[in-house]
Amino acid sequence: xxxxxxxxxxxxxxxxxxxxxxxxxxxxxxxxxxxxxxxxxxxxxxxxxxxxxxxxxxxxxxxxxxxxxxxxxxxxxxxxxxxxxxxxxxxxxxxxxxxxxxxxxxxxxxxxxxxxxxxxxxxxxxxxxxxxxxxxxxxxxxxxxxxxxxxxxxxxxxxxxxxxxxxxxxxxxxxxxxxxxxxxxxxxxxxxxxxxxxx
Amino acid sequence: xxxxxxxxxxxxxxxxxxxxxxxxxxxxxxxxxxxxxxxxxxxxxxxxxxxxxxxxxxxxxxxxxxxxxxxxxxxxxxxxxxxxxxxxxxxxxxxxxxxxxxxxxxxxxxxxxxxxxxxxxxxxxxxxxxxxxxxxxxxxxxxxxxxxxxxxxxxxxxxxxxxxxxxxxxxxxxxxxxxxxxxxxxxxxxxxxxxxxxxxxxxxxxxxxxxxxxxxxxxxxxxxxxxxxxxxxxxxxxxxxxxxxxxxxxxxxxxxxxxxxxxxxxxxxxxxxxxxxxxxxxxxxxxxxxxxxxxxxxxxxxxxxxxxxxxxxx
Lengths: 199, 314
What we know:
heterodimer; B: 6-stranded mixed beta sheet; 4-stranded antiparallel beta sheet
């Protein structure tokens, strides 16, 4: 770690007025690109970033592989994207919910949550584009009646198509699991350096 | 058509909409009654939950940030992210936002203009010590948020928007972005076309609405724009008559110190060489500054023109 960064962190955590103001300025600058999208939540986000940065620096999560400024930029982006996602209409099916449904145990996947996430991404990669489009509408909260009007096909036909897409996704999953792709997942013990992982 | 009878075939078909909560109450009741008594359909329910999770899956935010910051170059994660970005507009947009933020860091580091002094100064309490989640009154949080907001505005205003750069700001001629001349100097200065500009002949500011525009009557010949009090956003129209390609046009706002205060304003063609974009007024800098048009096509990024303006409230 650069001695200057080390000094900066020490002074930030000690509440040095100049450093806190500088860091606040950095946070504002780093989040400019998000300001329009997150306008109504901006004050909360600013506080969240400040707290997150304080938490990470207090726990010595920053190891100095990049400059403190770069690290802060990534924390800000990380936090803003998480906020964007949580405020979107998109419905996120949490892995905990899946576990509740018994899918994790049913899938015979002995890997980590990262590996399971990779599996999900690989499944979607291999599904046809029209399946992704139809399921996006489902996840966006369309009823099958509204989807039928939007897509221009009969309700019964639409339901069958969505069902086929679901079956296709499960087939791909089973095929991937058979190929033991999960065991070859890239995550393993890969070091992410100064990744501002929000615990 | 309302589903009157529920069997395994119908149950399997409507389960996605049971999951997204859009089935009629009557359909929901029939389906739930069927699920109670049918183990096969309960298994179907689990598979639908898996499919929903798969189709709703995106790389974690940290992967997108690492990707944009080129930290995945040697990682297998890069392939996962790249493949996903090809088919996911939402994540592609998120990466663009990260890239815009990353570029602002590059600009800041090129100037090194906002480093704090290297000696300790007055110590103030920071929020970390004051904000145990859920244990403090709402009034406190409102005040804390207000204080932080003011600190952010004052902080960024003092460092970034002020037309009087401090002694740590770079001298004239030091490079900043794509060879662009960094004109930040001591005291106010008007931005002008620099070595990196692809001076688009005939480029001009046509209108800013709401407001009135008077060409060449502002400071040092800048276009003078009067903005009515209460305006929330500005519709800016420019003339760029010589463009071969109209894609990837971005409008940026620079302050007098030539810092980019706003980027990402997409310029759309209105025909006859006119291009428009709408910007929130909060990102405009009052006083002297400039509008810059940048064009990004593939890996290329060119500054097409920089137009000096002086913005005042009416």
